[in-house]
Design goal:
755 residues; alpha+beta; Beta-galactosidase, Chain A, domain 5; Glycosyltransferase; Immunoglobulin-like; nine-stranded antiparallel β-sheet; seven-stranded antiparallel β-sheet; 19 helices; globular
Length: 755
C-alpha cells in the first residue's frame, strides 16, 4: 500500500468533511463510501450565478468622497458610520450550489465486513471494498475529463450477486431510455440536466419509479453526466449524449482514457522524502489515524509530540494538493472557489473571495507544473472586466480602470465592500503566469486586465499629509487598529498591504509594457507614481507596520498577516536583498504566531510559505506538522466549516517553496530544507524564466540538480555550496555575483548541477 499517493480508511465517512473528492474540473463528487447505500454528493461548476454582483445607488461616489474626507481628517468613527449608511448597500452574495445526491442502494442482507475505503492519487480513482456473506464487493469511482462523465464500476467475486437501485435525490428523475434517467432543475438561476445511465453484465436492468433497478448482475457500470444552460440551450440533449457515448464504451476503455489524461498532469512532478516515522509499518495505518498520531497522546507534552514524525504523510499532502488542482480546475471550467467544486449545502463558503482564498488556491499551480490549471482564473477575470469597469466608475469615481469587489459574486460586510485591492491582487496572477511560461502571446492577450487594474489605482490614489499616495479608504484585511487616542476602526488611509499590492502591480505593468513594446507613456506615469507610494517600514516592536501610521492592533490573533504581502506572495522583501526588512518580517511572524494567529488552516499555510521565503526550514516543518495535526479533516481538507481547499493548496505551495525558491530573478535550490528531510528528491518543479528543476539531496545537503531551460536566456542560480555545471558532458561557463551563479542557457537544453 502506497503511503505517498493513497488516502486510506477502514470506515465510511461520518460526514461531508470526511468524504473523498473526485472531479474532472467541471463535475465534482464527494464520496461517503457507505457499504449498503453509497452516497455521492454531486456538483457542477457552473451552478453559480453568472457575473459579478454590483452595488446600486446614485450617490455612491458622493458617499465615497465623504468617507475619504473624514478619514483624511482622522475622524475614523464618523467615516465608518458614513460608510455603513451610504455605501453598504451591495446586493447579497449568491453562491455555488449543490446539484443533488447520487444514491446507490445495494440490496444485500448481511453485515459488511473487512471494509476498506481509499482514494488513489496516482490515477484519481476512489475505491470502496467490503465483504457481505463471504462475497467481496468493490466499487470504483472516477470523474473523466475526456469523456465528461462520472463513472462508478461495481464488481463482485461471485457472479449474480449485485442487486441495486440508483437515482439522484433533489430532482425529478424521468426515464429517457431503458437504462437511463434524466433529472432537470435549476440552481442559482442556472438550469441543469443530469443523466444517470447504467449497464450490467448478467442479470436484469430496467427503470421504475424514477430509479434504475438492477437484479442479480455480475458487474455494473453507472455513469453520470451533467450539462447546464451555461453550456448552451441544448444542455439536456448534451447530457443524454454524454451518457450514451460513455455507456457505449467498456469500463476499461473509460478508465484508460481517464488515467492517461490525468496522469499526464499528475506525473509531471514527483516528491520523495525519507521515512522518518519510526513505525514498523506506517502503510498499514489509515490516513485518519496517521493524522491523529501526529497529535500525540493527551498526556504528551510538547517535546514528546515533536518526536512524532511522518514525512510520507507530508508527501501525501503535497500530492493531494496537486490532485485537487487537476480535479477542480481545468481549461474551460470555472476557477476554484473556497471549496473548490465540492459543496454540500447552503450557506457555503464557495464564492471567489479575493482577499486570499482564491489566490491561495492557485499558489501551487505554476511552481508544481500545472500551469494550464491556472487558466480558468484568467478566463473568470476576462468575463468580469466590463462590470469591474462600471464598479470603478460608479462606486469609486475613477474615469478608467477596473475595480473588483472583495467577492466577485458579492459580499455584504462593510469592510469587504470597501476593500479596493482585490482586483489588483488577482491581476498579479497574470504576470506570474507569464514569468513561469514566458508565453508572450498570453501576456499580450491578457495585458489589458493588468493595465486596467493599474489604471484604476492611478486615478484612485490620494495624497496624504506626508505627500504619499495611498489608497483611501483602505483596510488591512479583517484587522482593527487602535489610534493613539484610543479610537478603534477598520477603515484607514493606506494600509501596508494595499500599498504593497499596488507597488507589485505597477512594477508588473511596467515590465509587461516593456516586453510587449507598448504603452510607454502609461508606464512612465506609473514609474512616477511609484516614487510616492509608501514602502514597508519597521515599527516599535521590530515588526513590519500594518498601517501607514503605526497603530496598535486590537486582535493579536488575527489570521491575516496582510502587512507581509511584500514577503509572500510578492517578493518585495527577500533575505538576500532586503535583510533588515526580512528580519522585521520574521519578528512579525513570531509575534503573530505567539498569539495563535495561525489557528486556521489557510492562515497556517500562508505563514508556512512566508517561513519558506525567509529560508527557515525548522519553522516550515513545525507549521506543516501543525496543520496536519490540528487544522485538517480526516480527508486532508481544511477544517474551517464546512471545509476549505485553500489550506491544502497553500501547503502544497509551501513544500515547493521550501525546495525551490523562484523570485527576484533568481532560483534558489533547497532554500528552506527542514532538518527532518535528510534525504530526498523532487522532479518537475518549475521556476520563473521558463525553467524546470529536478533536485536530489542527502544528509540535508544538495547532491545534484538538473535545470531545464524551456526558452533559453540567462539562469541566475543560488545553491549554497560550490557546484559544477555541465550540459551534454561539456562544462558550462559561468560567473558568480553576490553568491549567485550566472550562466547562459539554450532552449530545450538541460544543465547538470553537481555539488
Amino acid at each position: 500500500m502506497s503511503t505517498e499517493t493513497l488516502l486510506h480508511y477502514n470506515t465510511p465517512a461520518e460526514d461531508f468533511t470526511g468524504a473523498l473528492p473526485v472531479g474532472n474540473g467541471r463535475i465534482g463528487g464527494m464520496i461517503y463510501g457507505y457499504a449498503h447505500e453509497e452516497l455521492i454528493r454531486l456538483n457542477e461548476d457552473s451552478l453559480r450565478p453568472c457575473g459579478q454582483m454590483r452595488r446600486s445607488g446614485s450617490d455612491l461616489c458622493e458617499g465615497l468622497a465623504e468617507v475619504r474626507s473624514l478619514l483624511l481628517d482622522g475622524r475614523i468613527s464618523e467615516a465608518e458610520k458614513t460608510a455603513v449608511r451610504r455605501l453598504s448597500n451591495e446586493t447579497p452574495a449568491q453562491t455555488f450550489t449543490p446539484l443533488g445526491d447520487l444514491r446507490i442502494s445495494m440490496k444485500k442482507d448481511g453485515k459488511a465486513k473487512n471494509y476498506s475505503r481509499d482514494l488513489e492519487l496516482s490515477d484519481a480513482v476512489s475505491h470502496v471494498s467490503f465483504t457481505v456473506n463471504d462475497v467481496r464487493f468493490t466499487r470504483s469511482v472516477f470523474c473523466s475529463a475526456p469523456d465528461e462523465v462520472m463513472v462508478i464500476n461495481i464488481t463482485c467475486e461471485q457472479p449474480g450477486s449485485i442487486t441495486l437501485e440508483c437515482s439522484i435525490d433533489g430532482c425529478d428523475n424521468k426515464p429517457c431510455a431503458e437504462n437511463m434517467l434524466l433529472c432537470t432543475g435549476s440552481r442559482s438561476g442556472v438550469s441543469f440536466a443530469a443523466c444517470t445511465g447504467a449497464k450490467a453484465e448478467g442479470g436484469e436492468l430496467h427503470t421504475e419509479d424514477g430509479r434504475i433497478c438492477i437484479t442479480d448482475a455480475d458487474s455494473v457500470m453507472i455513469v453520470v453526466s451533467v450539462r447546464t444552460s451555461a453550456h448552451g440551450g441544448n444542455y439536456a440533449e448534451s447530457a443524454v449524449l454524454d451518457a450514451e457515448t460513455a455507456l457505449g464504451c467498456s469500463y476499461d476503455e473509460l478508465y484508460c482514457r481517464h488515467a492517461e489524461d490525468y496522469g499526464k498532469l499528475f506525473g509531471r512532478t514527483e516528491l520523495s522524502l525519507d521515512d522518518n516515522s519510526e513505525h514498523p509499518d506506517i502503510s498499514s495505518i489509515g490516513t485518519d489515524n496517521r493524522i491523529e498520531r501526529l497529535k500525540g497522546d493527551v498526556i504528551d507534552n510538547t517535546e514528546c509530540r515533536r518526536l512524532i514524525h511522518d514525512n510520507k504523510l507530508i508527501v501525501l499532502l503535497f500530492n493531494y494538493g496537486r490532485y485537487l488542482m487537476i480535479s477542480g480546475s481545468r481549461p474551460g471550467t470555472s476557477p476554484l472557489g473556497a471549496q473548490g467544486i465540492w459543496n454540500e449545502a447552503l450557506p457555503p463558503e464557495s464564492g471567489f473571495t479575493v482577499n486570499i482564498s482564491t489566490h491561495m488556491n492557485y499558489w501551487c499551480a505554476e511552481s508544481c507544473n500545472l500551469s494550464e490549471c491556472h487558466l480558468p482564473l484568467f478566463d473568470h477575470l476576462e468575463g468580469e472586466t466590463e462590470k469591474a469597469a462600471e464598479t470603478a466608475k460608479e462606486v469609486y469615481g475613477t474615469d478608467s480602470g477596473c475595480a473588483f469587489l472583495h467577492d466577485t459574486y458579492g459580499s455584504g460586510s462593510m469592510p469587504a465592500v470597501l476593500w479596493p485591492a482585490g482586483g489588483a491582487w488577482l491581476a498579479l496572477h497574470i504576470f506570474e503566469h507569464y514569468e513561469y511560461t514566458l508565453d508572450r502571446d498570453f501576456l499580450a492577450e491578457k495585458y489589458h486586465i493588468l493595465r486596467d487594474a493599474a489604471g484604476f489605482f492611478a486615478g484612485f490614489l490620494t495624497e496624504n499629509s506626508h505627500g504619499q499616495l495611498v489608497a483611501c479608504p483602505s483596510i488591512s484585511l479583517e484587522n482593527i487598529d487602535r489610534t493613539p487616542g484610543g479610537v478603534q476602526g477598520c477603515l484607514c488611509t493606506g494600509s501596508s498591504m494595499d500599498s504593497q499590492i499596488i507597488t507589485a502591480l505597477f512594477n508588473d505593468v511596467i515590465k509587461a509594457a516593456e516586453i510587449l513594446d507598448r504603452d510607454s507613456e502609461f508606464a512612465d506615469k506609473l514609474r512616477n507614481l511609484l516614487k510616492k507610494l509608501p514602502q514597508p517600514e519597521t515599527g516599535k516592536y521590530g515588526q513590519i507596520q500594518e498601517w501607514a501610521v503605526e497603530y496598535d492592533e486590537t486582535e493579536m490573533s488575527q489570521c491575516h498577516v496582510s502587512q507581509l504581502f511584500a514577503l509572500y506572495p510578492a517578493d518585495l522583501i527577500t533575505p538576500e536583498k532586503t535583510q533588515k526588512l526580512a528580519d522585521a518580517a520574521r519578528a512579525t511572524l513570531v509575534r503573530r504566531q505567539i498569539h495563535n494567529g495561525d489557528h486556521t488552516g489557510w492562515s497556517c499555510a500562508w505563514i508556512t510559505n512566508m517561513w519558506a521565503r525567509l529560508g527557515d526550514g525548522r519553522m516550515v516543518y513545525e507549521n506543516i506538522k501543525r496543520i496536519l495535526a490540528h487544522s485538517i479533516t480526516p480527508s486532508l481538507l481544511g477544517k474551517r466549516p464546512p471545509l476549505e481547499m485553500d489550506a491544502v493548496f497553500g501547503m502544497t505551495a509551501a513544500v515547493a517553496e521550501a525546495l525551490l525558491r523562484s523570485c527576484s530573478g533568481e532560483i534558489t535550490l533547497l532554500p528552506a530544507l527542514p532538518d527532518e528531510w535528510q534525504e530526498g528528491s523532487v522532479k518537475g518543479l518549475r521556476a520563473k524564466g521558463g525553467f524546470g528543476a529536478d533536485i536530489v539531496w542527502k544528509e540535508g545537503k544538495l547532491v545534484s540538480a538538473v535545470i531545464t531551460s524551456g526558452c533559453g536566456g540567462e539562469c541566475r542560480l543560488r545553491t549554497g555550496c560550490v557546484v559544477s555545471i555541465s550540459c551534454d558532458g561539456e562544462t558550462v561557463g559561468s560567473r558568480i555575483e553576490d553568491g549567485v551563479i550566472i550562466f547562459a542557457t539554450k532552449p530545450g537544453c538541460s544543465y547538470n548541477v553537481k555539488a
